[in-house]
Design a protein that fits this description.
It is a single chain. The protein contains 2 helices and no strands. The protein has one domain. The mean pLDDT is 82. By secondary structure, it is mainly α.
Length: 45
């Protein structure tokens, strides 16, 4: 049961749940936006 709960929290909630420190986006969306921003900066330079 502990392993199942841990997996749910780490795999589902922490990756898809909204986080206030990330501007109420999910970590996956925040990372995607950050990567896109970095790639845009490289193309401009």
């Amino acid at each position: 049961m502990k392993a199942t709960a841990f997996e749910h929290i780490e795999v589902f909630y922490n990756r898809k749940g909204l986080h206030s420190t990330l501007g109420y986006t999910s970590p996956a969306m925040f990372l995607k936006d950050w990567i896109n921003t970095r790639e845009g900066e490289k193309q401009v330079a």
